[in-house]
Design brief:
The structure is a single chain. The chain has a single domain (14-267), classed as P-loop containing nucleotide triphosphate hydrolases (Rossmann fold). Helix content is 41%, strand content 23%. It is built from ten helices and eleven strands. The protein has helices at 45-52, 74-80, 96-106, 111-124, 140-151, 170-187, 198-204, 222-228, 236-244, 252-267; strands spanning 5-16, 19-25, 28-30, 34-38, 60-65, 68-69, 81-84, 158-162, 190-194, 207-212, 215-220. The protein has a six-stranded mixed β-sheet with strand order 7-8-9-4-10-11, sandwiched between helices. The longest helix is centred in the middle third of the chain and has 18 residues, at 170-187. It is globular, with a radius of gyration of 18 Å. The termini are far apart. The relative contact order is 0.17. It binds adenosine-5'-triphosphate. Residues 16, 19, 21, 39, 41-47, 255 line the site of adenosine-5'-triphosphate. Residues 16, 19, 21, 39, 41-47, 255 line the site of adenosine-5'-triphosphate (ATP). It comes from Flavisolibacter ginsengisoli DSM 18119. Residues 248-268 are annotated as: Disordered.
């Protein structure tokens, strides 16, 4: 059965002076699917997300989300999407409930509806018990789930998650994965995520795209990609190396530490 496409990019390109960070990317994402962008540090994943969330303007090309062009109608796009950046995006001094209520108000939800939705998402993310505690007392996994709930307050059709599990302990990773899959199941939310974790891409994604130096190196289902590298029992790591000619773990140490530090510093 043919699925409806929710997002298409057409030769989406971003140059920073002479350097091309994203080079004529053309991909399509079906409604209700989880799509992962993989690639080594500097491959252009965050740049791609920033273009699709209208934080950056393309140098050329376009992307269409639910029929709306990011180039022509950035304000309409912002109502259609939710975004969880790599950096912490909740306030550590407020409670989980207060953080969500703030966002509900930002999106102009009437007071009664705002409270209902906050409670609905706290329940969905299994954060009711901690709802009235300051967020700085939350674990990394709880913070991530709260951030995802926050990005959902206006019921966006599409969510962008930039490295949703970086810096989390194994239990945090599992609960975040479980809730990302539930979002797709219960709300039919279309999700584009970036990740360095091959297992994450393999377990969550309907389709995976590999970027290498700003260019699309491969796209397909995890199964198709594993078959395409033609070794018996090939893993997503093998696929990564095959298409990007780099190791998935290159330079991870510093990157992970830096991200964790950013988290700690921001929450005080
Ligand atoms: N504002 C900017 N000015 C100049 N160069 C930039 C800018 N933003 C990104 N770049 C460069 O563009 C390239 C792609 O960066 P990007 O952050 O998109 O990579 P990434 O795949 O998300 O990497 P990571 O896995 O480290 O997050 C990098 O070489 C980066 O240095």
């Amino acid at each position: 059965m043919a699925m409806a496409l929710l997002l298409t990019t057409q030769y989406l390109t971003k140059r920073f002076h002479a350097f091309t960070a994203l080079d004529a990317l053309t991909i399509s994402i079906e409604e209700g699917e989880i799509f992962s962008l993989l690639g080594p540090n500097g491959a252009g994943k965050s740049t791609c997300i920033k273009l699709l969330t209208t934080l950056l303007k393309p140098s050329s090309g376009d992307a269409i989300i639910d029929g709306v062009s990011v180039v022509d109608h950035p304000f309409r796009i912002r109502r259609l999407i939710g975004y969880v950046p790599q950096m912490i995006s909740v306030d550590g001094t407020l409670t989980g409930y207060e953080n969500l209520l703030l966002f509900a108000k930002l999106y102009d939800l009437p007071s009664q509806e705002a409270k209902q939705r906050v409670n609905e998402y706290l329940g969905f993310m299994e954060l009711q018990e901690a709802a009235h505690k300051p967020v700085r007392t939350y674990s990394g996994g709880m913070i991530r789930r709260l951030e995802i709930a926050q990005s959902m307050m206006h019921r966006p059709k599409m969510l962008f998650l930039d490295e949703p599990t970086t810096g989390l302990d194994p239990i945090g990773v599992q609960t975040v994965w479980q809730h990302i899959l539930e979002l797709k199941k219960q709300f039919n939310t279309t999700i584009l995520l970036t990740t360095h974790i091959m297992d994450e891409a393999d377990k969550l994604s309907d389709h995976v795209a590999f970027l290498s130096r700003g260019k699309l190196a491969a796209v397909g289902t995890p199964e198709e990609l594993k078959k395409s590298v033609q070794s018996i029992d090939s893993s997503m790591e093998d696929v990564f190396i095959h298409y990007t000619k780099e190791s998935p773990d290159s330079e991870r140490g510093f990157h992970e530490v830096a991200t964790e530090r950013k988290t700690t510093r921001r929450l005080g």
